[in-house]
Amino acid sequence: MKTVKSQFKFKGGVHPDYNKELARNQPIEKLATPAELVISMSQHLGAPAKCLVKVGDFVKRGQLIGEKNGFISVCVRASADGKVKAIEKRLGPAGGMADAVILDTTAKEEALAEGTETPTPSAPKGPILPPLDWKTATKEELLKRVEEAGICGMGGAGFPTNVKLSPPPGKRCEYLILNGAECEPYLTADYRVMLERAPRIRLGVEIMRKILGMPAVRIAIEANKPEAIKAMEEAFADIEGNVEIVVLPVLYPQGSEKHQIYATVKRIVPEPPALPIDVGCVVENVGTVAAISDAVELGEPLLERVTTVSGDAVATPKNILAPCGTKYSDLVAFCGGEKIPPAKIISGGTMMGFAVSTLDIGTTKTTSGLLLLSPSRVFQYSSQACINCGRCLRACPMNLNPAEISKAMEADDVKTAEDAHVMTCIECGACSFGCPAYRTITQFCRRAKASIRARMAAERAAAQAAAEKEKQKAEGAKAN
Ligand code: SF4
Ligand code: SF4
């Protein structure tokens, strides 16, 4: 195992203020189970899970409460014991509405059954899933475990991990890349996981290598995290095979999957629908890798995660290990509350996160950060006409023309945005970051992509309906 410097710099990128000093030295603290959890059925990329419980049911920690609902989908398990007090649409961390199970974790099943409010002692706790010996387990057993543990990418995208670890026929993973870049300003959750859970990451890598047929491993970390590099060097010191730690230059969006692949192995992922596996790569966030080791060795599904709560309007910034479904308000209370009333609340980081207007949102498997910013950190502006300065073109790491896309979308011209390859936009925010006209370019890109996706979904549904009609017609003719 050796440590090398990345030799490959991608085009574009920006240097925002990182502001990581607020939380980087705060060890991970575990939050006790809150009185109420808001557990979304849509914590991942793809089809929401199908809810399996009803109001009034008691569930146990780890119990399956949502089954995966298609190939690109992930199951959901209860992150605590409790009583289902409602199932309703709730606002999610990314701003969309989704079905959520509202769990009252103070209710006691045995006590209520007896008609008394006296809590009864909990049954002794054992592993939720039977622990597996990864050395003797088959590849299929390990993959099944990743799936039944409900693991998805914890870096933000939420792609189902079992799907990522199952290259399609004819494709082979040559490089397994661990994403430890965490280039989003303020966020330090992955950093702390690398410092505090390095042996779990090492074990996760061993398991993934077995599943993927022993690819080479590249551990990608930005140069501004020397302690994390050291922790990984120590954890992987005696690992066998082709394993390298690649120190990346500090440049946003270095944590983007495509840019990390380029920076580590100099391969270029073609335009969507191409995926990293098309160039022989699988990229996994370090937190996801640790979750895989917990699921296999300890039988612990993905029920909790580390979230950074930071910003200058929160009393004490922290890295908090909390059950999925913990409300933002409980996270902030655990940090000592608000120091001053925030002018802006951001779900995620300042570059790719979403501004939200309430703390009544439950965390998900992908919630990496929550920021509370004071008025002094929030720049008030009004969007102006493009002055054709070209700064956004230089900043865009995807070689797009963000100015053209923003102008097209101002006129609701989705076709022009599509022709300008907006679907390859990774929504990194680098274009908006330096725009002297304060144009909301990234939001224009998001709107264009949503509109194109909706049209494609409608086209697919129409094609399916037409095929079904043809099939029925053919069956009718055959019967006659
Ligand atoms: S157009 Fe998309 S990919 Fe390019 S800088 Fe803007 S947000 Fe990033
Ligand atoms: S940075 Fe802003 S003003 Fe400059 S070209 Fe891009 S959209 Fe126009």
Defining traits:
480 residues; alpha/beta; Rossmann fold; 6-stranded mixed β-sheet; 14 helices; 30% helix; 18% strand
The gist of it:
By secondary structure, the chain is α/β, with parallel strands linked by helices. It is built from 14 helices and 18 strands. It is globular, with a radius of gyration of 23 Å.
Task: Note the topology.
Elements: E1 2-5, E2 28-30, E3 36-40, E4 50-51, E5 58-59, E6 64-67, E7 76-77, E8 82-91, E9 97-104, H1 109-113, H2 139-148, H3 161-164, E10 175-179, H4 189-196, H5 198-212, E11 216-222, H6 226-235, E12 243-248, H7 257-265, E13 281-285, H8 286-298, E14 304-310, E15 318-323, H9 328-334, E16 344-347, E17 354-356, E18 369-373, H10 391-395, H11 402-410, H12 414-419, H13 430-433, H14 441-479
Parallel strand pairs: 1-12, 2-15, 10-11, 10-13, 11-12, 14-18
Antiparallel strand pairs: 3-9, 4-6, 5-8, 6-7, 8-9, 14-15, 16-17, 16-18
Bound molecules: iron/sulfur cluster (2 copies).
The site of one iron/sulfur cluster has 15 residues, from α10 and α11.
CATH topology of the domain at 2-25 and 129-298: Rossmann fold
Gyration radius from CA atoms, angstroms: 23 Å
Indicate the CATH class of the domain at 2-25 and 129-298: Alpha Beta
Sheet of most strands: 6 strands, mixed
Distance between the termini: 70 Å
The total of helices stands at 14
DSSP, total strands: 18
CATH superfamily of the domain at 2-25 and 129-298: NADH-ubiquinone oxidoreductase 51kDa subunit
User: Per DSSP, what share of the residues sits in E-state strands of 2 or more residues?
Assistant: 15-25%
Low-pLDDT runs of 5+ residues are: 116-123
Helix content: 25-40%
Sheet with the most strands: spatial strand order: 2-15-14-18-16-17
Residue-averaged pLDDT? 92
Shape: globular
What small ligands are held by the chains? iron/sulfur cluster
- Named at the architecture level, the CATH assignment of the domain at 2-25 and 129-298 is 3-Layer(aba) Sandwich
- Class of secondary structure makeup: alpha/beta
Oligomer: single chain
